[in-house]
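Appendix B, record 7
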Amino acid sequence: MRAVHAITVALALGGGPAGCRASETQTPTPVATSAKQEPFLARRAAHATVLHTRAPSPGQYTDESPPKGVSRVVYSSGELELAAWYAAPFDPHRGSHSVPALVYFHGDFALRPRDFEVVRPFLEAGYAVMTPMLRGENGNPGDFELLWGEVDDARAAIGWIAKQAHIDPQRIYVFGHSIGGGIAALLSLYPELPLRATGSCGGIYMPETFARWATSKGNRELVRFDPSDRRETELRVLGPNLEWMVHRHVAYVGADDLWFVDNAAALAARAWALGKPFEQVVIPGDHMASLPLALDSFARLIQADGPR
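Structure tokens (predicted):
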């Protein structure tokens, strides 16, 4: 599939949940082109990230029960047993037919009830919906790593949902907002994942982002590795690794979320030249208000996609 240039979608503005605080210091630096010839997966497997602080996620949360009709499930990521919220549509006329699935990765470093509510329309449209909590979040075991071990957790969550008997393995989608969008974008690099498409809203970060966060009073606690080490930064974002992209990614960005507009546009230009399936879609709103519009657009896109 060939990449397409930015598309502007005219939609009415709607309210949305609070976005990731890290977006406040984003930077529109052009995507670095890595000179490395070694594939992304080989470089990532060979790299051992070094954390100077080992602690849970800084995301604030309250220990709330899942909403009615939603179950708390546990999935395994390596040695970690992690929690997620999960719900499947109930249709007495469906019988043994399988259903498509959406795995949604939240922003702001902790899962809250509102994160499930923003994707409830997918459940009502006939999709099974999973909202994972990642390592160090919401009381989960593990340390916060910022777009490193959390990506492994995301892969494990997809593996969990793909094994459920009622899931159509040909129609598994992922979407993420803010830092969750950064995770969703990275998942497009893993050929073993049974993904039909991935999407994000305000989730396209740059290697240079981490150095800015590390010197920001509000975000420095997020960066627990050396942000001057390009091995660390390049392996945590999609841009330098576009050459190895294998799954379609639709990057929604709010027209008023200026840093992310520039970030995604830089990737779209490179993806076009590489023939990779990355698309930028600009919609009304800022980092927060653009989320419901992005989810609505992604829902219509995957509904039109239909079964193979």
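Remarks on this record: The chain has a mean pLDDT of 89. Residues 107 and 300 are 22 Å apart (CA to CA).
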